[in-house]
Amino acid sequence: MLVTKKAPDFTATAVLADGSIVEDFNLYENLGEKGAVLFFYPLDFTFVCPSEIIAFSHRAKEFRERGINIIGCSVDSQFSHFAWRETPVNQGGIGRVDMPLVADLNKQIARDYDVLLNESVALRGSFLIDADGTVRHAVINDLPLGRNIDEMIRMVDTMLFTNEYGEVCPAGWQKGDEGMKADTAGVAEYLAKHENEL
Questions:
Q1: Contact by Cβ (8 Å): 35, 67
Q2: Angle between helices 48-58 and 149-165 (to 10 degrees)
Q3: What's the CA angle centered on 146, arms 31 and 6, to 5 degrees?
Q4: What is the pTM of this model?
Q5: Tell me, what DSSP letter sits at residue 1?
């Protein structure tokens, strides 16, 4: 389990958001001002994956406005990533998505994040990494189960809130909601006001 630990660093080949290919894409050098979301998906040119990648891309600006960079990763080559980006959405492609896609050909990154399935493909792992490299949130879905990208934005908001205010975020917390002091009095005060909303 990686939550509370430092995210395993890597340097790998990647296709950047502008379509250029670099051989020295480093995770820690590509964290946003306040962190990153690193997400794994099984394979290019598949079925659930494009819906997730496009959903991340559509929200990339929202993540960046929060100081968070989005980074995708699969066991495909950079050439496959590039070809998939160049394939129109209405032909099964993802179009020119607004994030880098990392090529994990030797599957070591997927291994390091414990998402490699049967030495074959990566499960749908998503890792919220704080600015200092600490993994603060992780969720791993089985292959047929698509992610909720809006929930990841909510988790980013909870991380940023707790980092700034030192309070904790109760169940279902949304940006703008009241936080909770992490002590007995704080819990009692919060529940007295909000029990029926839970």
A1: yes
A2: 40
A3: 30
A4: 0.95
A5: -
Q: What is the DSSP string of 133-194?
A: SBEEEEEEE-TT----HHHHHHHHHHHHHHHHH--B--TT--TTS--B-SSHHHHHHHHHHH
Task: List the domains of the chain with CATH numbers.
Answer: 11-164 (3.40.30.10), 167-198 (no CATH)
For the beta carbon of residue 138, count every other beta carbon within 10 angstroms. 19
CA-nearest of 109, 118, 106, 121 to 44 is: 121
Q: Which tokens in the block code for residue 152? A: 């990841």
Tell me which DSSP letter residue 32 carries: B
What is the 8-class DSSP label of residue 104? -
What amino acid positions are annotated as catalytic residues? 49
* Alpha carbon distance 53, 163 (integer Å): 28
d(C-alpha 41, C-alpha 126), whole Å: 9
- Hey, what are 143's tokens? 């292959």
User: Using CB atoms within 10 A of its CB, is residue 136 exposed (0-12), middle (13-18) or buried (19+)?
Assistant: buried
| CA–CA distances in Å: residue 177 to residues 126, 173, 193 | 24, 6, 12
Average pLDDT, 10 consecutive residues per value, the chain (198 residues): 97 97 98 98 90 95 98 97 94 94 98 97 98 98 95 98 94 92 89 88
